[in-house]
Each structure stands twice: as structure tokens, then as C-alpha cells.
Amino acid sequence: LANTIIFATMLLTILGSSGALPAYGRYPTCQVLDVGADMFLIDCGEGAQIQMQQYKIRSNRINHVFISHLHGDHYFGLIGWLNSQSLFKRTKPLHIYAPAKLLAIINLQLEYTLSFIIEFHALQEGQAYTLFENEKYQVFCFPVEHSVPTHGFRFTVKRPNNIINKAAITQYEIPIYYLQKLTMGNDYIKQDGTIIPNHVLTFPKKPDLVYCYTADTLYTESILPYISHCNLLYHEATYTEEHSQLATDRQHSTAKQAATIAKLGMVQQLLIGHYSSKYKNTQQHLAEALTVFEQTTCVHEGYTIEIK
Amino acid sequence: LANTIIFATMLLTILGSSGALPAYGRYPTCQVLDVGADMFLIDCGEGAQIQMQQYKIRSNRINHVFISHLHGDHYFGLIGWLNSQSLFKRTKPLHIYAPAKLLAIINLQLEYTLSFIIEFHALQEGQAYTLFENEKYQVFCFPVEHSVPTHGFRFTVKRPNNIINKAAITQYEIPIYYLQKLTMGNDYIKQDGTIIPNHVLTFPKKPDLVYCYTADTLYTESILPYISHCNLLYHEATYTEEHSQLATDRQHSTAKQAATIAKLGMVQQLLIGHYSSKYKNTQQHLAEALTVFEQTTCVHEGYTIEIK
Is B38 a catalytic residue? Predict the structure, then answer.
């Protein structure tokens, strides 16, 4: 148990990097975030279940789905994946966090065929709040600026309060059953009453791991409080500077704008994606983002990154 | 004009060969039938629009869509393709022939965003009848036996009544404007009143081209009247003989049963597909079908065949 807490990581896999229209082999938006004891599905564009097979995602591990908004390129793959989960005879409940209307869309097509319960949580328009939290994770949503109500998400994997100092616990003969209490900050009291202070037996807590996903959005600094100092930020970058007017008109961002948010938010690393179908490749996106923020990566289908 | 009538063909492209679950790179059912002046979409499983790009299908040419039944692997890709047609600013109306409930599914998701009119034609449960017919084509639907109301389709490209004999029309100096009338059986009357009989100026009519698609079905000889003597039959072959009980239970067919229908129907060629996800490859399907009907092909994504 102690080990699984100490080595908590996040593994993000990109299943779709395309904008509204699939193009040049790029699929619509879909990401999977493996947080160890759970797996989160972040948006679910058409073909998601096919991409999950392609990239060996064991999608029956997914218990929480987050849909940012109801443009088709962010949810048209959900109905197919839900249907397949039923064909695989899933029984575990599934939590879906999405705009309210999605429940009607699911029910109209799958109401009588689902093999499992959907716990549906309608996202509150324009609100920033915690969607769920337990001792291991927190998921928080925040509004972004797009042509329909849209939320970004912040995923936090909590680190243990402290990390076990293996040499010290051997030296002081601390029983195994007590290790978890040490990670939570308790001192150890020996049978003779001697107190071994917690800081002698542990190393200091590591900071929580935070991944932020902006979904589709116009450039807006209103999201900075929610994404600042995160380990990894995904920000959409539909256009290059040549088409910055299109970005404004269609309430999307350019790669340079994504990089500006990353810089202002002082994030550690930036991923950009959601490329318009007008671009055959994304070299120009990367070049423009790098002029503003050095730790930028252009994501493509199958890209994975571990946050630790 | 005369040329396009004389050389009328059908070009069928398979975009998905998988059964209910995508597997081993196989996509759910989708086919495109190019009949020259029009293009027909036959079922539309998830990822259809991505496969259309992959196989260079100019899908804005599609004006008629035929959905056999409302199991997801036959229609979950339609909503994405319709949405993309709107993003491409399509204005041409689109005819959709499908079970009645599909209209509600489309309207719930796309009612306010479609850039074009959908002419929706609800398939009449259990009925065999002509869906539409003009001077060039006929499309006919017939019921098959499956767990939900399901139709197969028969597509006919009509051949001209007669084929121009180029040597004869040169010899008799027939004016160009009269050629189409010759194809329709008229004699030619010269200015001096002499009659040149039609059979002198033309070759006999070639038979119509017929493609039949069974959709998902239990083995049933009730379809023989509709498919008999066609040029090309697609019959589902979800299972091999090893799993023939599954075929019965789930109201699907085995490859051998598909071949039996082809043989009894005296069709020219058979295509089989809709393979269960339990099979990594389809060698066994082919081997079993060939024991009954020699002109059998196992289709896979990107397979094309011209009927002429």
C-alpha cells in the first residue's frame, strides 16, 4: 500500500489531436488519464473506442468520464464506447460529468440496452467547482470561453503527506502496520514511551501532481487561477498566427496564445492540440509556440507522457 | 450522354467489415456504392467519415443513405458524418432511408446546426417495397430476420435499352442528336422516308446490374426471391461453423450459411463480412464458404469491386 502511494503518477495518452473535422489521420479529441487506481476519460470524439484498441488502453478500467462541451468532435465517440462496454457485459457503475443534455442523447439510444448504471452529473454552466474528491484524487472544473457552455478540468493526484525513510524505519524497528500512519504525519511511540518524531522516520511530502485540460477556448486569462503552476497543461491550439482572426471568430486559440497562457500560468510543461483540418502538419504551430514557451510539445495520436 | 449510359457500372467500397465490436483494425459496417451520377451510403458505423478520408471517398457526392437497422454498429457513424457535411457547408438535400427512430436521434443532436435539409423516409417494418426509382436506378428493400426490425437492400443500375453500334451509325449517317432515341428502341426514319430498323443500328440491351446487401440476419431462405441471380451479393458471416449455435442465438449467420444462400440464389459473386471480434483473421470463414460456393470473397476495409 505504502508503495502505491509513494509512487503515485499520472499517465496521459492522447487518442485524438484533431479539431472539429478529422483530417490527415488525426482523430477528434479524446484523452485517457491513468491515475493508478482509476482511469479518467477526457472528452470522447468519434472513433475513441477504435483508438483505445489501437493504443492498448484497457478501457474497462475507466470509471469517470469528463465531457467538456457538446460539440460533436468532443462526444460523438461516447455512445459507441458505452454500447461496447455493455456488449462486454460491464457491471461497474460509470460516472459521467457533462452538460445536462448529454443524458437525453444517451438515453434515447441506449436506455434499454446498457448493462450498467450511469451516474450522471450535469456540469453547472459558468461555474468553477470541485466535481469529486477522495483521499487520492481531486477533479475540479472551470468555465472557459467558447461558443457553447464549455468547461476545462483540473486533475490532481494527491501525494502522501510523507515518504517513508526505509533506513530509519529499519533502524528504529517500526512495525509494518504503522507505516501508513507515518505517511499521514503521525509520530511513533515506542512501548517504553519514547517518542520518535515523524520527521526522523520520513522525508517531506512531495507536491501534488496536477494536469489541466482547457478544452476548446478563446484566449482568456480568466483561467489562470485554475491552471497556474500545474505540472502539465493541455491547451487547444486550433490555428497558427496566420489565421488568428479565424481563432477569434470561432472562439478558438492560436498556438502562440496557448503558449502565452502557459507562460503566464508558470506551468511546467505545455501540450498543444486540436489542430484545424486546414493544416497538413503541425510544425508551424510548434515553431510559434516555442517563441513564447520553451517546454511545449505538439501532441499526436498515441502520444503518452508520464507526470511524476 | 450515350457513353455514360452504355458504360454504367457500380463501384462498391467496403469501409467496415467488423461485427458489433470493432477489432483487429476492423471498423463497424459501412459501405459506399458509386453508381456514376450518384453515390449511396449503406449503413454507417462509427468512424465512417474517417474511413471515407482514408479511402478517398468524395462523400459530398452521397445523396442517399440507407440504414438497415438501429444496432449501433450500423449507424453510430452517421451523426458525425452529417455534422461534418454541415461544417463543409453542404446545401444539397440528403435522403435518409432508415428505421423511424433515427430521425429523433438526429434531431436531438443536430436539429439547429444542419446546413442542409434531410428528407427522411421511415422504413416500413416487415415490408418489401421499392424505396425509390428513376430512369437510372432502383432501390428496393426487403425484411431480413434479426433481433430488431432490419431490412436488406437491392440496388439496381438500369442498362440502356440498347447499345449503339458505332459502325452502323456511321454507315447510315445517323445524326448525333438521335443516338439517345436509338438506345431507347426507336427506329430511324431518313428524310426520304426509308426506315432503318433499330436492331440494325444497335446491339441488344445488356442486363441490369444488381447488388444485394443483406444487413444482419439469421439464415433465412425468405430472402431468396429478392436476391436471386444478382451480380453481387453481400451476406453477413459473423461466425464460423464452430460457433453456429451463437449465430442462431444472436440471429446472425455463419460463413457457410451465407454461401448456401448465394448458391440457392444462383448469384454471380458473394462477398462476406461482419466478422465477430472473436476472430483475429477470417481465413476459416473463407475456407468454409468456399466448400459451398466458389465465387466467394472475404471483404476487408478498403476492398473495392466494380460490377459491370
Answer: no
